[in-house]
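Quick note —
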Amino acid sequence: MGPEPRMLTPSPNWYCSRSSDAGPGGLFGFAARNSVYLLQIGLGQSPFHVLGELVGHTERVSGFTFSHHVGQTTFCASSSDDGTVKIWDVDTRTVVTEHTLHQNTISALHWSPKVKDLIVSGDEKGIVICYWNNRNDSQHFFPEPRTIFCITCSPHHEDLVAIGYKDGMVVVIDISRKGDILHRLRGHDDEIHSIAWCPLLGEECLTIRPEENSDEHEIPNGKVVQQTPVTKGCYLATGSKDQTIRIWSCSRGRGVMTLKLPFLKRRGGGVDPTVKERIWLTIFWPTGQPTQLVSSCFGGELLLWDLTHSGKRKCTLFSSSSEGQNHSRIVFNLCSVQTEDKELLLSISMDRDVKCWDMTTLECCWTLPSLGGFVYSLAFSPVDMGCLAIGVGDGMIRVWNTLSIRNNHDVKTFWQGIKSKVTSLSWHPAKEGCLAFGTDDGKVGMYDTYSNKPPQISSTYHKKTVYSLAWGPPVPPISLGGDGDRPAVTLYSCAGEGIILQHNPWKLSGEAYDINKVIRDTNAIKYKLPAHTEISWKADGKIMALGNEDGSIEVFQAPNLKLICTIQQHHKLVNAIRWHHEHGTNPELSYLIASGSNNAVIYVHNLKSVIESTPESPVTITEPFRTLSGHTAKITSLAWSPHHDGRLVSACYDGTVQVWDVLREEPLCNYRGHRGRLLCVQWSPLDPDSIFSGADDFCVHKWLISMQDHTRPPQGKKSIELEKKRLSQPKPKIKKKKKLTGKLATKQEVIELVNGEDCPKDNSLPIENGVSDQEGEEEVQEPEISNGMSSNVSKELPSYSSISSGFEKPKMSINPKVIVPKKELPKEKPALAKKKKARSILPVSTALDHRSKEELHQDCLVLATVKHSKELNEDLAVNLNERIHLGLFTDRTALYRMIEVEGKSHLENGHPDLFHQLMLWKGDLKGVLQAAAERGELTDQLVAMAPVAGYQMWLWTVEAFAKQLCFQDQYVKAASHLLSIHKVYEAVELLKSNHFYREAIAIAKARLRPEDPILKDLYSSWGAILERDGHYAMAAKCYLGATSAYDAAKVLAKKGDVASLRTAAELALIAEEKELSSSFSFRCAQELLSVRNWVGAQEVLQQQECLLGQRLVFCLHELLSKHLEERQPPEWKSSSFPSYHSWAIRTESSFMEKVTTVWKSTFGLETTEQCQTAFQQLHGIEYPPATGHTLSKQLLFHISHDLTLAVLSQQTASWHEAVRALLAAVTRSYDSGNFTLMQEICTLFLPEGCDHLREKLGEEPSFKSLEAFFSYGQLYDLWWNLPRTPLIQIQHVADPVPIIGTASDDEQNGLSDNSSPEIPDPEALTQLNNVLPQVAIPSKALEQDQSNTEKKQLALSACEVLISQMHADLQSTQKAITEVQETLAEMIRQHQRNQLCKATVNSTEEGDPSMKPQLCSKNADSQSKEQVNEPLSLAELTKRLSEANKRLAGFPESIKIFPFPDVLECCLVMLHIGSQCSGCLSLEMQQQALELLQKYGKSKVYKSYQIFCT
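Predicted structure written out below.
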């Protein structure tokens, strides 16, 4: 893998007639989403490399073309759905000029090859615009009212432009004559996809017989066209969706040749070539080859046509001898680029590949793969180093061989069986080629990347998107199987619904198990488990960490998943958890766990003490080992460097990737190359300088740390600029969907659900074959529309006129003529209002009774005849049927007939209620109810009358009415009707399923037994939804209703502010969850402490008896803060106004007395037992060690904790514990680099020195260490208070003090055996007069007070404890071990680089031997550098490391446990003080210091000493 950056680009846009083009000088560009990506072809060793992108459009780029004119070969033009045409300068990648003359979607674009500044574009309404950019002039033409598909300017005549339309029409216009149509070329009957002019002028190059039946084309436009020089002598080729290519003669205006695409038998394919929707026919006429034509075919093949053959045309298939070199999907664009020795053809296809072809051999030279969706996941194989798996939102997995030398973009694609966005990936830790994947539709599967077999799919699906996959040891029940039935590792998947499933990789068809059951059973958990969002196994397989939606991280011990600790650090959803690797130089770093969440802070915790001690009850951790701040949005991915100790990389929604030095809490490097939100990141396993990152800009970037200009994430204006850059991406047009739940709602910005069409039934094709764009992740749709129109032309943008009309409508609705009269209408009395006449139930018969007098008289005669006739004859029956209203006066049969006619009339007129009344009068209520139910026309009145038809009919009617109401979204009313027939459970379930939880609970509480489990389920479900939506107080009420006070307190505390934490603590205390209550109280107090409100913090803590120790810590912290503020060091000043207690006011007593007095008077701490109790509460709490980046507030609180332990131990006369706690406070300030604070602590707690402790402890190692740090502070006090003597007065008159000579080479390397004493070099001792300054004391200085000298002598003599032979030996041994380990690590890295170089040379010999000398020269250069350093052999290093470890093991444990100041540093300071203050340092101490410097120092120490002393 070379050191150069690389990238995988977004896929070229589909269904565009010219979305790619090649320019002079080997430039190639293609449109992808709303950008244009530029490639340089054929320069240097690589066949191509990505130059960058042209950014400026806000919507999809639909056209791209280069200028081929001398002097502006770096100019190009692009068109977009945003309505603009932009002209670019490729060198600067900036817009030169642009125009927005089109009012409709632009569908075609071309830069004239004859006119230097002419760009021609066409849109979907048929408008053609010619734009001359140099003079900013334009002309509009409207040749045909049809949809334009493609435009090509003539390479021979500057005024001729050929235009292809959607309906198959081709026209040639002359723009110099106001767009007059020279030819209408009819022959195609479907979309024109491509137009190409013959590269040679004249029609003598081809011997072509005229087409049969083509006479009709001889007279274009209905009149004879005179033969002019402009209209004759040029051929034109067109490719259409009708599967034909036609050659046209421009001199005759007619077709002269038709080429029919052959039906090729695809190798390994199953696509039917007769499907017209699967064809896009693009053509290309090679430069200087008028007898040859290149075209695409049905399934992605390319054909070379020989136009010289008469009769059946001969065509040659590209790459006919090589399997799998052709495109697998339809090809959209073809263009050529001329290199030094050959012509190359470039093609873009629906298979998301850009291919380059040698026009001489017709073979594929190289392939550039691209991505069609968000890059959700990256994973390097732990077995096959360099294989990077990429999970993409286009439903495919890419496996990139990043080690390939001959092909920098060696990518293999997998799509079978996926059919959805790939959101998570994980390689098997030991099995080569085994890759697990998870999708956004909840599918989990495994691929064998070394075979072409479909993947194995787990039979258990998640309900929501899979976010995390991890391989780990089996847990019950899989771990309970026998050795033959139990795999070594199982697959764990975590998804949006908050559960983690364990899959057996040997039996994916079997059931997957929810590990929550094991967690509940092992830890006897009764409360609701939090929703899991992340899983990570420690490398040794013994510890598993789970990230949760509430921000907590739970750490479990395998195999039974015993909970050993909970990290309460994040307060938002955890997105990423990563354990440090185990192959570093420091084994303790493997206990580091880094985590990132929806807030912008990364926390690193050290779990060494917890994991090694395995406590009986779970431990809660609230303090991080390291805090990494700087990002401004949510963290999405983390990765530890496999090459370094404690180096981490993070990906963030702020659009950047950040590299951190965790141990020093320092940002090292920030990458800002992406144009979107970062979703994943991985460190290269072979190159320490390379990192791979993926984002929602459809790109994977490989970038180098050493090439970055920024060190930390952008803040302020830079962050705003980066956000603008990200927002310039195309905005996805998504359908409105139901709000998502669980983790999906919080991670939804990264992983959206599929909004497109259903997946195709044909499993032989990837997902995108039949699925529309998924929320902007694919640029265009497949043309699955019934009329065959492609998506990019079927989408109509509103014209300006429609927009203006849209603005006019609201103006008309706000017309004062309409509003004012309403206000002035007279108020009428209700009694005088005209009553509305009721509608007649029998309108037909009533109307018949209001006819003419003759008709009424005839009715009377017919009625009389019927009444007095014994039998009805045929004529009488006809008369009676015509007069249905007489049924009111005859028999029942006639009445039923009248009611039937009246009923039909009501239904036809839209009055079903009147029809129902008629049926009720008739007595057919059952039929009415059934008919109304079928038509969905049941009403309250019908339901009220239903009991007349019987009890069962009433029940049936109510149920039918409830269903009808549900279709009308009247769920509450439907539930009420179900209650009327005593279906309480059905009513409750109906309301619950439609999220009417409040109403459902009211009904359940009123109608069901209090102990009914459905009540608890309702409360829990509603609480979960409210919690997800951020309504924490209401969710807490629900959990309390479900008798789960534990969950209620936790959800209240999720907001993390003071009021919420205080309420959560009180609630947990009421529910007797004392441990939970105390943790919330402590968190609340810490929040108050951050704003310096000690009064409020004590009020919160006093509610918890178990937090007496913390109250003492806060008290001491308040007194110490007050003291430091009075001393007014700048670092202790704060912008927030402090809230002190009255007892914190300064008094004359000492600090220790003040502390003990306040403890007794305020907290009642008087007895030894009380002190011991408080000590036990605090003793088990451990805080991480301090560094130079630890915040001052956090440092002071940790020191207050240590000092509280010291005072409590002193009160109980536990002097050993008191010294250890005081030593911890001193060393914490020392490690943080805050020397002033260390001095203040020593002054406050050891005002009279350490003598009183020596009497009690003697030579206790902890006391010796504390005494050393105290003396260390005194030593520097002496140095700072030395008289500042002008250097000009310094003379060499002091007594000579020997200095050490030059160290040996081994000593310079820090690897010498420092344990054996050496005899001082006599020659070195004589160098003193040349090195050590000898000071002549001025007369005024000689008269200084003798008492000051004596005090300094006493102080320096007290510092003799710092000149410790044993500690110097220990420190030297530890440094030697560290340096050997660093040397070994560097040798391992160098060995990896050498192996990679060998592999590179071997593969280069097989491929391109010309690269070998350059690689070897690089290797030789690196070897020459190594020879300068002359590194030791591996055996020698190993020997020295083992010897140093043996020496280290020989030291007493008591000395190794307790820290000690740097002995050599102290020796240097003492000698300097001795040189500046004559007589203060005894000769014996001078000699001891020099001997230690000689024995353990390095050459750098001597140089520093010489500079220091002179």
